[in-house]
């Protein structure tokens, strides 16, 4: 990895969202590959930088993308912007200010600084309702169904117009996950039944694998990737049955013993889990898997083993950090309201 830094030229990299689920995994991956020993400096934008970040060998710039007036010149001297920060949920105005307007501000600063390397972390949630079955990036147009996804779809459009690169993961799991697996556990416990035998197929990715792809891209020349969109998932989809069986087995939860049709299951979840939206339920009831081969070929990274093998590495973290019995609104994947 130390020699694969084409396009950086020794100049710093700007990272947003470093304290979040995916962004913190990127920092971990940079540390794992020894970036802070041989790589260009890392500049991190954070609203409230925690102590661990300040002591991790990065330069911290304190600020908020929703109020960027004090961040003028943030891209000066930078080679690359890795933009992972996002507003997930909340009111439409906040989503617009952070996701669309904040991204547009960063792009304007990059333009002023003469930077062309800009990577934006989006989500397959911009596609809206499924089913989606193995569609490639060029064959499926965004049709967002929430304020969050609408603002991120608008941000994507600005990034692509600029010539930046967009990544769209689907369901992300691993250390730091507060949405996907915790929500799945509460759903299985509240309604212990398969949805149409768990036959729906879905795309997933381990957060450390996603971070590895980002770090790999940081070190590559982007001539072929400007304006491109990549699905960022493990290339092999899994069934919901495999996901549930693996999670329950690793976390000591009882497997569903009955089978219900999607309609019957949804009627029951509406009563016992009112926080679960139709869109979130749909992610487990119908196919949502995306052709993700291009990104792995572009980065020349081996995706490695399947879900069961990779989830086992994170199971200890989940046992320590989540409470499947918690009575909270259930969210599956990215919260779409």
TrEMBL record:
InterPro entries the UniProt entry points to: Epimerase_deHydtase, Lipid_A_modif_metabolic_enz, NAD(P)-bd_dom_sf
Highest taxon listed in the record's lineage: Bacteria
NAD-dependent epimerase/dehydratase domain location: 13-218
Pfam families, A to Z: Epimerase
PANTHER family to which the protein is assigned, alphabetical: BIFUNCTIONAL POLYMYXIN RESISTANCE PROTEIN ARNA
Protein name per its UniProtKB record: Nucleoside-diphosphate-sugar epimerase
Protein source organism: Amycolatopsis magusensis
